[in-house]
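User: Could you go from structure to sequence for me? I need the amino acid at each position, not a summary. Structure tokens:
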């Protein structure tokens, strides 16, 4: 692929719905995903590629229409919590290149977790610290069919949601995983497809829809914006199936990630199981994964351990039983903690004096370029401590020339590089000497409160200046004006500019 490409699968005969099925980050990236897509005209699907790329399609299964009648086979049954059936990190060295790892699910069948005649499982397969290559999952009892399930980069950690057909061998039921290159494997089973030994029912039948984007934190639609570490974003489902579904199938994409971590989807306000649907290894990544998740009467939510934007494109839903979707666990609703402190650069916006300037860290000589300097050693935005800034009043454009006009009711806004907006309200002003310690000490209003102090030179008590005795006027190198502000509120914005 070329850099920053995506693919989208949708029914032939319809227009592209603006959704994505697979995201690729870098040049020549080899990236996989399981894709569930409704068939269009002639039983076909269209694949749209934003940019140039090669495409490989492996067909792993189909859903057959039932006209809404009860059936035994091919219905999804989700487990109450995903079951970790394999973690080779706990068994010793990583499986080597060319090795076939057996995933024996007989204990789950014998204990009743899986129906005796289950024909496939919905699983998430993660390769950890892998060598570059591919991994393929296929049933017990057949040779490797020459297909791939997961492609990984050298040293990468990558997971993929997949449907794997089950096979039987010498009385054991399960599937094999072939590794072209070595890697540790972590496999979680989230549900299974019923077989002919199961009871006849309409519950768990799949209803394919044209892909529909229901969450995109990049746009801020419905007030849901970027996730910080430990945050949850929820969305409701369209009314035509919200009360008739027990689960949905989706393409889950994370982009502009803030750091390593994972993303998990679940029913809104249901008790969270700490398993992953999508893993990222660092900042600035764009990755996608197929996910099937149970829903609640409040819809679906996405949890992020490391932060980033998230996009959810629904491709279908699974029918519910007579009770419909589950009720949320209101005894333990999710709450989003304040995001961690962030250092400069910031954008400072002071409408009272018509000022908009970049705030930078580093050497104080930045003020000679007309910038506002974040005083080294003072607090960071979001850090519940004193923040100090400094700029000139007469030279280099004089950003703080009219600082003395600020008073009660005036505000200063700081915009961060990660889409936060902090609003500070005027508290008071004071005069100090030019001694650094005295200036910094004067910025502390109260412990535990986030304060912003705007500092510049002032006439003060320098009687040699023409503006004396106006102590607040520009300017003398011997004294400093400090205007102090208290944090009033913070919110998420779409861009920092």
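Assistant: Here is the amino acid at each position, in order:
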């Amino acid at each position: 692929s070329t850099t920053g490409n995506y693919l989208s699968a949708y029914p032939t005969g319809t227009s592209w719905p603006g959704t994505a099925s697979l995201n690729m980050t870098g040049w020549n990236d080899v990236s996989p995903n399981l894709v569930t897509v409704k068939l269009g005209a002639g039983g076909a699907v269209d694949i749209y590629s934003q940019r140039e790329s090669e495409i490989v399609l492996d067909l792993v299964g189909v859903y057959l229409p039932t006209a809404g009648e009860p059936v035994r086979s091919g219905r999804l049954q989700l487990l109450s919590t995903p079951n970790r059936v394999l973690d080779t990190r706990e068994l010793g060295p990583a499986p080597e290149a060319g090795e076939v790892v057996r995933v024996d699910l007989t204990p789950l069948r014998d204990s009743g977790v899986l129906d005796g005649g289950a024909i496939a499982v919905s699983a998430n397969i993660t390769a950890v610290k892998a060598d570059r290559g591919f991994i393929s999952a296929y049933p017990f009892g057949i040779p490797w069919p020459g297909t791939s399930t997961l492609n990984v980069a050298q040293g990468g950690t990558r997971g993929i949601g997949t449907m794997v057909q089950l096979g039987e061998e010498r009385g054991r039921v399960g599937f094999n995983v072939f590794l072209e290159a070595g890697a540790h494997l972590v496999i979680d089973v989230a549900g299974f497809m019923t077989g002919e030994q199961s009871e006849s029912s309409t519950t768990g039948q799949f209803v394919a829809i044209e892909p529909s984007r229901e969450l995109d934190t990049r746009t801020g639609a419905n007030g849901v914006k970027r996730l910080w570490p430990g945050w949850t974003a929820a969305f409701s489902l369209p009314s035509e199936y919200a009360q008739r579904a027990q689960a949905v199938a989706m393409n889950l994409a994370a982009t502009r990630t803030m750091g390593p971590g994972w993303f998990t989807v679940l029913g809104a306000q249901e008790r969270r199981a700490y398993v992953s649907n999508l893993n990222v290894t660092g900042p600035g990544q764009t990755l996608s994964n197929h996910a099937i998740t149970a829903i609640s009467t409040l819809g679906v939510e996405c949890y992020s351990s490391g932060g980033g934007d998230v996009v959810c494109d629904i491709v279908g839903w699974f029918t519910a039983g007579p009770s419909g979707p589950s009720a949320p666990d209101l005894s333990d609703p999710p709450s989003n903690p304040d995001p961690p402190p962030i250092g400069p650069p910031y954008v400072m916006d002071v409408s009272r004096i018509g000022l908009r300037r970049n705030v930078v860290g580093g050497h104080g000589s930045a003020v000679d370029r007309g910038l506002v300097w974040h005083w080294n050693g003072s607090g960071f935005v979001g850090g519940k401590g004193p923040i100090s800034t400094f700029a000139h009043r007469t030279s280099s454009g004089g950003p703080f020339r009219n600082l003395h006009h600020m008073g009660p009711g005036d505000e200063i806004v700081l915009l961060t590089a990660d889409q936060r907006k902090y609003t500070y309200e005027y508290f008071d002003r004071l005069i100090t000497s030019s001694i650094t310690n005295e200036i910094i000490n004067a910025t502390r209003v109260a412990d535990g409160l986030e304060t912003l102090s705007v500092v510049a030179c002032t006439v003060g008590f320098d009687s040699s200046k023409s503006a004396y005795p106006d102590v607040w006027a520009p300017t003398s190198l011997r004294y400093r004006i400090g205007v102090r502000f208290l944090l009033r509120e913070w919110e998420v914005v779409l861009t920092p500019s």
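One structural detail worth keeping in mind: Helices lie at 106-110, 239-242, 436-442.
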